[in-house]
Write a structure and sequence with these properties.
Length: about 160
């Protein structure tokens, strides 16, 4: 978690957060200065995700987070150790470096995301298309109706 406050109150707030979170999370590490900058650089540049693995972004939420993580671990099978999973935006975005196939069988990431009702956007890796998982909004009838009202001439691409 990244937190920023006035310098005078930051230490007190961090102490309070640690006291609250220790009960459920155990030991916590506080990073500051260069260490903090390095952590956020790694997150932003995806250095945590092996370059040879496809990288996929999918929306998530607190309700689906545990089920998604469990399904991904089952789907990765004996390659679970190679999978990288990172959540951001308070658990509302999942970033996956996936060691298996993106499409093609029951253990493919496309199938896992579809079964979870989640769309995936492939940021890196060959897939035959940038979208996997549940249908993207453009395939949704409600989306098409709204777009038809707002852009009846079809001037703006989806």
């Amino acid at each position: 978690m990244r937190s920023g406050w006035l310098a005078e109150t930051l230490t007190l707030r961090i102490d309070r957060l640690q006291a609250l979170l220790r009960a459920v999370a155990g030991d916590l590490q506080v990073a500051t200065g260069d260490e903090e900058a390095g952590l956020w650089h790694a997150a932003r540049e995806f250095t945590w995700a092996p370059h040879e693995l496809p990288l996929v972004k999918t929306p998530c939420n607190a309700v689906k987070l545990a089920r998604l993580a469990d399904a991904l671990i089952r789907g990765a099978g004996d390659q679970t150790g190679d999978m990288r999973l990172r959540f951001s935006v308070a658990g509302n975005v999942a970033w996956l470096a996936w060691p298996g196939d993106l499409r093609g069988d029951a253990l493919a990431l496309d199938t896992i995301l579809s079964q979870a009702g989640l769309p995936g956007l492939v940021l890196r890796g060959a897939t035959g298309g940038p979208h996997i998982g549940a249908p993207i909004p453009q395939a949704n009838a409600f989306y098409r109706r709204v777009k038809g009202v707002l852009d009846p001439q079809g001037r703006f691409s989806s």
